[in-house]
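Sample pair:
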Amino acid sequence: MDRTGISAVKRELRKSIIERRDALSADLRMEMSGVITAKLTELEACGRAEIVLAYMSFGSEFDTTGFARHVMESGKALALPKLRKDRSGLDLYVVSSLEDGLEPGLWGIREPRDGMMIEDFSLIDFVLVPGVAFTRTGGRLGYGGGFYDRLLVGKRRDALAVAAAFSVQIVEEVPIEENDIFMDGVVTEKGEHFRIREDR
């Protein structure tokens, strides 16, 4: 399949999974988000991390607020992405407050207002990655901007990139292109799937 065909398949799958996710009730999404957050915070790799990169959820995504609060309350540094004005990539900032330190970004996603910028991505110990659809073997379908695929190229080998999603977002396969980055693990309300040993 050529690149145009792959892009079309990705668009259709993206639309289908977002519709499936949107169909979940707000109460159910909140309940499942609590279960997923508990699973994430129990991961050994998350527990030993000193700098955690997360993101602020929007729409019908897994609600990351509880996870972000846990990171901060555990004394870890919480980094969040901010989209550059020219949309060329993401800058990472350590935030000190979820209430006062964030503002709506280009698509209404909450981003850091300011803070200390992390210029060396290899300093990140644990990465929570957003996305639309995932496979049990770590395949990921994002939102189409390629921001995280470019960002994760700089990840340390011993730093885990983990996705959190509802089980309705798990599919048998996603179209994979040369620049697509696999997740080390995927956590849903029903379980965890890791490509490698989590305690490496």
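Residues 135 and 171 are 5 Å apart (CA to CA).
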